[in-house]
Amino acid sequence: MSASLPYSETVRVNQIGAGLSRRLEPDAEARQRIARALDLQGLDAFAVEIEVKPTPSSSEWTMKGRVTAHAVQTCGLTLEPLPVEVDRRFSIQLAEAEPQQTDEIEVTLEEEDADLIEDGKIDLGQYAVEQLVLSLDPFPRKPGAQFVQPEEPAEISPFAALKALKPQDDQG
Q1: Does residue 1 register a pLDDT over 50?
Q2: C-alpha–C-alpha distance, residues 67 and 131, integer Å
Q3: How close are the terminal C-alpha atoms of the chain, in Å?
Q4: Helix (DSSP H) and strand (DSSP E) numbers for the chain
């Protein structure tokens, strides 16, 4: 995503308490911004149910939810509109970012790492759009659409190309 997010709905960690439930339904203008950001032809409906709860025996939170949407992608072959229904459940672990003591950045490739919460804020809107992106086909194709390889041009020999450049008089 770019620096300016197409949709943002922030909550502070201290607002969560024992748990927090939200239903996010962006208005038409926000859905247009999301559609532009995701290169969709349209986003007629988009709703996300999100629940954030502290995880027992750790300093983490669990975000669970369900994203539903009616979007219109573009077929990668025919460039025709391709309606898509999205209904996806998700679960994400969150943890507060610890202040860095050194200038070194540690990079790990473990999938079990929790998403880091920075500045004590969780952007529920950003997670909603992220889950929508994960639900869409990155290479949308209409049913029955097939790629047909164009015929390769016949190979022209270098001598045939030179002959074509030769003047067509009989002096030769």
Answers
A1: no
A2: 7
A3: 67
A4: 3, 7
